[in-house]
Design brief:
Elements (H helix, E strand, L loop, with lengths): L9 E10 L3 E4 H5 L6 H8 L3 E4 L6 H16 L6 E5 L11 H7 L6 E5 L5 H14 L5 E9 L9 H6 L2 E11 L8 E7 L7 E2 L19 E2 L1 H23 L8 E4 L4 H11 L10 H4 L6 H11 L8 E8 L3 E8 L17
Helix pairs in contact: 3-4, 7-8
Length: 346
C-alpha cells in the first residue's frame, strides 16, 4: 500500500488590522524644542508627523488593540498561536506575547516574541508559515508592535524625527499554496558584523543597567544604515522574486518597511518597480518599527489601494542587521477598518 502523503499547507492571509496612538507630534512641534525644522525633516525622511503613545500605554496595549482588530476582521476571532514582533517588549522577562494572547481571550495559545527589530514582522510571517506548514498551528495571529518613544532619547532630534509608535497585525490560516493570500518565496538574512549600527547599548547581559550613566537609549548610524538598507532590501526583494519566477515589472504593489522615503524610492528604483506601485504611509505616522509593514498593509487595504489578485511584495530591514522579503497574491477580503484617519501633513 502506498503511503498517504498529506497535501502541503500554506499560510494564507485571512484578516488584518492596525492601531496607532491618538497623539500626533508634528514636525513643527519637534522644531519648537529641538534644533530642527519641518523642511529639514521632510527633505531627509519624507515624514510630516508621527504618533506617540500615552505614558500609561505599553507595547502590549498597542498590540492588543491591533490584534483584536485583525481577529475581528478575519471573521473567526480565534487563533491557536500568537507571535509578537517587537524591540520594545513590556519587560525583559517574561515575553510580552503571552500577556497579549491572554488579554485577547486566547489563553492557552502558543505565544512568543520575535526580536528582529524592524525586520521582525517579516521574520514572524516566515515563522508562522513554518508552523502552519508543519501542522503545529492552524491559525496564527502575527503582530508587529513598537513604542520607540520609550527608547529614543529626549534630545535625539534625528531619531525623534523618524520614529513613531504603533501596532499592526494579520491573521494567517492554514490553506492551499495556490490560493490567493498564500505567503510564498521568503528570503531572510542577517549580518551580525553590523550589530552596532542600530542598537540600544545597555540593558542586556553584556551591558546590564547598573546605574544612572547606563546608555539605554536607541542609537543608529544613519548614513551607514542607509547604505546597508538599500543594498540588502534590494537583494532580498530580488531573491524572493527569483524564487517565485517573477520579474519586478510583475509586482503590482510594493510594501516595504517604512524606514525613510529616500530609502524606499531608491530600492524601488534599483529593483525596477514603478514608483506608483510603492505603498507608503510614513509621512503620517513615521517609522513604527516592526509595526510598519502591517500598518502600511492595513492602511492601504482600508483605502482600497490593494486589489484582489494583485501581486504584493513585502520587504523589511532592521537592526541585527536583519532583513527579509516575501510575496503573496492579494486575497479578496471584507472591507477592513481604518487603523487611523488620514490627515494632511502638507
Amino acid at each position: 500500500m502506498n503511503p498517504v502523503i498529506p497535501a502541503p499547507r500554506a499560510a494564507v492571509l485571512a484578516g488584518l488590522g492596525g492601531w496607532v496612538p491618538e497623539r500626533v507630534v508634528t514636525n513643527d512641534e519637534l522644531a519648537a524644542r529641538l534644533d530642527t525644522s519641518d523642511g529639514w525633516i521632510r527633505t531627509r525622511t519624507g515624514i510630516g508627523s508621527r504618533r506617540v503613545a500615552d505614558p500609561a500605554d505599553a507595547t502590549s496595549d498597542l498590540a492588543v488593540r491591533a490584534g483584536a482588530a485583525a481577529l475581528d476582521h478575519s471573521g473567526a476571532g480565534q487563533a491557536d498561536t500568537v507571535l509578537l514582533a517587537t524591540v520594545t517588549p513590556d519587560h525583559p522577562c517574561p515575553a510580552t506575547a503571552p500577556d497579549v494572547a491572554d488579554r485577547l481571550g486566547l489563553s492557552g495559545a502558543a505565544a512568543f516574541d520575535i526580536g528582529a527589530v524592524c525586520a521582525g514582522f517579516v521574520y514572524a510571517l516566515a515563522t508562522a508559515t513554518g508552523l502552519i506548514a508543519a501542522g503545529a498551528a492552524d491559525r496564527v495571529l502575527v503582530i508587529g508592535a513598537d513604542t520607540y518613544s520609550r527608547i529614543v532619547g529626549p534630545e535625539d532630534r534625528g531619531n525623534l524625527a523618524i520614529f513613531g509608535d504603533g501596532a499592526g497585525a494579520v491573521v494567517l490560516r492554514a490553506g492551499d499554496p495556490d490560493e490567493p493570500g498564500a505567503l510564498a518565496a521568503f528570503d531572510l538574512g542577517s549580518d551580525g558584523s553590523g550589530r552596532e549600527l542600530i542598537t540600544v547599548p545597555a540593558g542586556g547581559s553584556r551591558r546590564p543597567v547598573t546605574g544612572p550613566g547606563a546608555d539605554v537609549h536607541f542609537a543608529m548610524r544613519g548614513r551607514e544604515v542607509y547604505r546597508h538598507a538599500v543594498t540588502r532590501l534590494t537583494e532580498s526583494a530580488r531573491a524572493s522574486l527569483d524564487a517565485a519566477g517573477l520579474l519586478p515589472s510583475e509586482v503590482d504593489r510594493f510594501v516595504p518597511h517604512q524606514a525613510n522615503l529616500r530609502i524606499l524610492r531608491s530600492v524601488a528604483d534599483d529593483l525596477g518597480v514603478p514608483a506608483d506601485r510603492l505603498v507608503t504611509n510614513l509621512h503620517e505616522i513615521g517609522n513604527t518599527g516592526a509595526a510598519s509593514v502591517p500598518l502600511a498593509l492595513a492602511d492601504a487595504a482600508a483605502h482600497g489601494e490593494l486589489t484582489a489578485g494583485e501581486t504584493v511584495l513585502l520587504n523589511a530591514f532592521g537592526g541585527g542587521l536583519a532583513w527579509g522579503s516575501c510575496l503573496l497574491r492579494w486575497p479578496k477580503l471584507p472591507s477592513s477598518p481604518r487603523p487611523y484617519p488620514r490627515r494632511s501633513t502638507t
